[in-house]
Amino acid sequence: MRWLVGWSSIAASFGTAGAVGNDDENRTLHPVGAQLLWGDPDPLWAVGDWRPDEIRVVTVDPFTRLAVLGCCAASDDQLRVGLFAARGGAMRHLTAWPGSYTAVVQVGRRIIVASDLAGARPVFHTPWANGTAYATAALPLADLIEAQLDIGHLAALLACPETPEALRDSTPYAGVKRVPPGHALVLREGSREITGYEPVASLAVAAPQIDPDRAVDGVRDALVEAVRARLTAPRHAPETLPPDPGPVPGMGPAERRAARGAPAPGIGADLSGGSASGTLALLAAGLPGVPGTILGHGTGAGERLLAVTFNDLATGGRDAELERARARAIAENPRLHHVVVAASEEALPYAELEGPLTDEPGPSLVTAERHRRRLAAGSADHFTGHGARQVLDAHPARLADLLMDRRRRHLLRPVTALAKATGPSAGSLLVPLTVYRAARRLARTPYRAGLESAADGLLKANRSAPAVNGPLSASLAALAWARPGPAARWLTGEALAEVSVRLTQAATRPTSVQRPGEARARAALARYAADHRILEQAAEIRSQRLHSPFLDNQVVRACRDLPESLRVQPGARAAILRTVLAGAGIQDLPPGWGATSHAPTAAANRAGLRTALPQLMTLFDAPLLADAGLIEARVVRRALRAATEGEPVPLDGLADLVSTELWLRRLLARRGTCWTGTAAPRQRAVAGGVPRRPTLTS
């Protein structure tokens, strides 16, 4: 895990001045294993296994400097221009370079830390020592102030995971706050301010629509630059390669290396058969880059891209996906080496309940081992198509935005496709009218009324509510300002009441209201990006970097410029990415390219629940979530048994509950702290354990 941490206080020194070159006893407080980027009066550290090229510091004078941590394609001159722009207040320049990174600016006693647009690179802060401490991870700040658990946040995370109004700016640690995506933290001698750096669209007047062809060209340019930013970066090989045991029957060199848990040198990519991963693989294989590493790794036979396909044998295999992945236009590309990772029951969800402690809980904890097996066969720099669905596809609530702009004719194709997806039935003829009425109701519902209705509906949530199955039910449920999450049905009444209070308070709080579709889409993206960040930590492999260009700032901006009328059309994502590839000179794509299906994922989740049922029943025999008053253990155990028997139980909700329980147990079993020195905290975070009952806020 890699993170940066610093603080701003009223005092001109807190014991770190001149720390570079001084003895350890002169450092009164610093993170364990940290690299000091600059010292007093407002110090900044980089912690973890950062690569040398991932840390760049541009200095104009001792109190005017910029630190960029991560993959950033900007030159030193561009960084210097961004520093001068930020000094004048134009913080958006700090987020306009290709790549994925965190930028920190120091101008005198003013500190600016910008979060990204998606939420994959968040920023956290907390009051500390007559000032404010900030970091890109919440756990170090919780250690710093010896924070306790925020049970109300955990309740909101389970009840309404895609509702920012319920989560607010809180974290699982009391007193540690999160900077919202698209905002920057500005510190002046300890005082803090949260300010947005993106322009806010008007709710009353529709924004001018960009020509669809021009918008798609913008997506192509941004995506190509994002991939090129990784290709032009220095190549890296694993720091330490375990010894090769020699020839193993049925295993080649790549399979033996993956079994040892070490990534291959150079560049790799997922090749799942989907449009997103296929696009990145083809772009990375076709764009010019820097082949091989400094030591000469990754240059054999002219190959510099390792494409990895995961084949799940436990659910009958994914033959159609393998056929697309092996198609001549992708897998037989001369610049690409294809590897198929086959796994059986040992890679099912819930098969491995042990793992590292992550910064926050997330549903990806139950599938971390499944992803780790795939990534272990990848490269030191590995592309994934994560986030493409959230930034390119249309959220169902965007239908209400079209009605607000009086563009009803654009609803015809999406509602017709939805009627076809429901299958032939007596009610399928009424699907277009049902969806239209729901979209019109959302378009006419004010923001405050929508949140108040969601707060009332949360109090009426019960465990006998039907599961949301099928595209029609999911679309109708998404046509609202806020809705309960899949795990809400298993929460206690007291926990739901606390989340309802949060929603009611948010309804009366002044805010810059967006259109319902745009607001719901951004909330869904933020939720996905947060879970992707947890996945990176849970499935982390030493010396490997996961790259998700679809979550980069410039790609997110370009995708936001896509007109709603283009987004809502069936197959829009595949069509956009096909145009992106055509613009990069890639024309011949295999038949069926761009087809999507969630059936294998649902089958794997249900199979994993059946296989791991004894361990899960033991896990919820005396769960910590029940000690906190969030659930009743017997209710969850009954739901687990029902899911294994094939009943219509929301599997996503069970994943949320199991992952949160696992995270709590790992957190309370943790030893040590993130800080050292004479002024270090005396105990780690949440040393007091889990409170017995949540406390309702007024």
Structure description:
38% of the residues lie in helices and 15% in strands. Mean pLDDT is 85; it is low at 17-26, 291-302 and 694-698. A hairpin with a 2-residue loop joins strand 7 (99-107) and strand 8 (110-114). It is globular, with a radius of gyration of 25 Å. The strands form four sheets. A six-stranded antiparallel beta sheet has the order 3-4-1-10-9-11, with helices on one face. The protein has a six-stranded antiparallel beta sheet with strand order 5-6-7-8-12-13. It has a five-stranded parallel beta sheet with strand order 16-15-14-17-18. It is of the alpha+beta class and 698 residues long.
Features:
698 residues; alpha+beta; six-stranded antiparallel β-sheet; 38% helix; 15% strand; disordered C terminus
**Outline, from the CA principal axes?**
globular
Strands, total number:
19
Main sheet: strand order:
3-4-1-10-9-11
Uncertain residue ranges:
17-26, 291-302, 694-698
Strand content: 15-25%
Radius of gyration: 25 Å
State the helical fraction.
Answer: 25-40%
**How far apart are the termini?**
37 Å
> Tally the helices: what do you get?
25
Structural class: alpha+beta
Sheet of most strands: 6 strands, antiparallel
Mean pLDDT: 85
